[in-house]
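Reviewer 2 asked us to include a model.

Predict the structure of this chain.
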Amino acid sequence: MVDCGHAIDPRHHATCEVCGGLVLCFDCARTHLCTSECAARGCHPGLCVKEVRDGAVAIEFGIR
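Predicted model (structure tokens):
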């Protein structure tokens, strides 16, 4: 299990470092907003998350 409640492959998932390393499946990562204020400020869901592959965190933000 991960922070979003869904099972994932521990070698390939997403994380939100803004939320202190929150671990997310890709479906939840694509819709993730850190706070309810994010949408009000015009933030786009999923832009604050990064892909984790084989323990390495991506440099770029966002999930494709």
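The longest helix spans residues 26-31. Helices lie at 26-31, 36-40. We have added this to the supplementary material.
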